[in-house]
């Protein structure tokens, strides 16, 4: 059963679809972009943040200026005595932060990488309370301008979609991110499907749903239909490693299969039993992405 606040919101959107569909579409977009208050975290997340704190303290923290506010960028160097071999960008997912990417960051730096990890707008130590594809891509591109070019960019969940769009330059007025290789971990493929599902959750009518799509186009300079990752990778043939758990309940495995169909430059490796978040610390996953970021052929977790 839907919660009482969601029931009220749905009723309001159903009425607005008839009398003010453009307003309803914009309101739905603003609701979609709104991020949680950074100080309101669950006890479980607080424990995770406390555990990650000593590691995060090792980074140099930079504040990068973007049009939507300052973005936090963490600069991790290889351990003393380890030769620096490459520079890698790491991007977390929706309602996450760089602190939750520490296993990936640590594996990369121990292999000789300088790792730049950004907190997306409205997350972690970055400014604002809004996140969308446009300001996320700008954040990644700004990191590229300061620290790039990168040998690899690694994105988890929504961060994977951001990485794809930053590399192909899909947002009008934002320079392309430059990287040699791409790693997608549990990444969604289709932004149109993403927004359609969001619209169904809000019970948007057809006119409000169209207005929502139109608002995204006005913001990014492209129609929402252009934001399908597999189609983007088919046109822009970056060497790509896709890591996904078959049992992922948040981003179903069909998203990974779609990326895999983009062409022979994409390699799909399954990570069974790890789910959407535990995949970030799976030893086999860390070995795969570390090798790939170094330009080595990925192994296969599953035959």
From TrEMBL:
Record keywords, A-Z: Hydrolase
GO (cellular component) term, any one: membrane
Domain of life: Bacteria
MF-aspect GO terms: hydrolase activity
Keyword flag Hydrolase: yes
Domain AB hydrolase-1: 88-286
One Pfam family matching this protein: Abhydrolase_6
Protein name: Alpha/beta fold hydrolase
Source species: Nitratireductor arenosus
């Amino acid at each position: 059963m839907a919660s009482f606040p969601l029931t009220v919101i749905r009723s309001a959107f159903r009425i607005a679809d008839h009398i003010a569909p453009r307003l309803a579409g914009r309101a739905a977009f603003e609701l979609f972009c709104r991020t949680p208050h950074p100080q309101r975290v669950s006890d479980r997340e607080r424990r995770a943040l406390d555990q990650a704190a000593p590691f995060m303290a090792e980074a140099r923290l930079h504040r990068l200026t973007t049009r939507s506010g300052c973005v936090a960028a963490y600069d991790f160097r290889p351990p003393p005595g380890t030769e620096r071999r490459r520079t890698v960008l790491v991007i977390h997912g929706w309602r996450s932060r760089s602190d939750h990417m520490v296993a990936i960051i640590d594996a990369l730096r121990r292999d000789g990488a300088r790792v730049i990890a950004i907190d997306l707008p409205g997350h972690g130590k970055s400014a604002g309370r809004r996140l969308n594809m446009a300001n996320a891509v700008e954040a990644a591109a700004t990191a590229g301008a300061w620290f790039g070019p990168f040998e690899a960019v690694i994105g988890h969940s929504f961060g994977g979609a951001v990485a794809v769009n930053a590399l192909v330059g899909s947002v009008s007025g934002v320079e392309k991110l430059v990287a040699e290789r791409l790693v997608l971990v549990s990444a969604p493929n289709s932004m149109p499907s993403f927004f359609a599902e969001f619209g169904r959750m809000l019970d948007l009518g057809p006119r409000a749903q169209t207005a929502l799509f139109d608002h995204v186009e006005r913001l990014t300079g492209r129609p929402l239909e252009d934001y399908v990752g597999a189609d983007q990778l088919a046109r822009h043939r970056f060497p790509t490693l896709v890591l996904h758990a078959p049992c992922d309940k948040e981003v179903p495995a069909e998203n990974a299969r779609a990326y895999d169909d983009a062409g022979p430059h994409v390699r799909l490796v399954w990570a069974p039993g790890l789910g959407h978040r535990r995949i970030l610390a799976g030893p086999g996953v860390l070995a795969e992405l570390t090798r790939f970021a170094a330009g080595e052929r990925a192994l296969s977790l599953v035959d």
